[in-house]
Write a structure and sequence with these properties.
Elements (H helix, E strand, L loop, with lengths): L2 H7 L1 H15 L4 H22 L20 H17 L2 H40 L19 H6 L2 H19 L4
Length: about 180
């Protein structure tokens, strides 16, 4: 088993451990919190939106946010991490986040693409040719809007991410000396 496979299987735990390290190293201020919070909220909103469209291992998600980027969940995770790095107000925090995200998620994305190519064949190949891997394309999509489903958001436990974000922001607020 190589590094990327280990990272793929344990990305949630790795992300949590890196998050704890980054919060420890951070030196937040009121300004940095206000600057980073919109990125965090936009990132989690993107993840929530994405979770309402994905039916893992059952069908290829191409609607909603998946019509604009093949990896909206990871794009949302990037926004959350970047927002927390901005809130951390320390160049080391930003550097560690960018390096860790790149190392972990590049392999995860490549691994998942291999699985999707195998599972969905020519349909996935067409999707790859029409939708960018990470940075969204906002042009009109050849794919429909589909149907957002809150039950899927609940099934994917996105509420846990919202709770984690609230906890992370509270810790950073405490580090600034402010009260949540």
């Amino acid at each position: 088993m190589n590094f990327f496979e280990i990272a793929r299987r344990h990305r949630i735990v790795l992300s949590g451990l890196i998050g704890v390290l980054l919060i420890y190293l951070s030196r937040p201020t009121a300004v940095s919190l206000l600057a980073g919070l919109p990125l965090v909220l936009l990132g989690e909103a993107t993840r929530t939106w994405s979770s309402g469209y994905i039916r893992k291992n059952k069908e290829l998600a191409t609607d909603g946010p998946y019509a604009h980027t093949r990896n909206p969940l990871y794009l949302g995770s990037f926004g959350i991490g970047l927002g927390f790095a901005v809130m951390g107000n320390h160049v080391g925090v930003l550097s560690i986040f960018l390096a860790a995200f790149g190392l972990v998620y590049w392999g995860v994305i490549r691994s998942e693409e291999g699985y999707l190519a195998q599972a969905f064949g020519s349909r996935f190949e067409h999707y790859v040719r029409t939708v960018p891997r990470f940075l969204p394309r906002w042009a009109r999509s050849p794919y429909g809007a589909g149907g957002f489903d809150w039950a899927l958001v609940w099934k994917h436990r996105e509420y846990q991410a919202w709770a984690g974000i609230a906890g992370g922001v509270a810790v950073l607020l405490l580090k600034t000396g402010a009260t949540p």
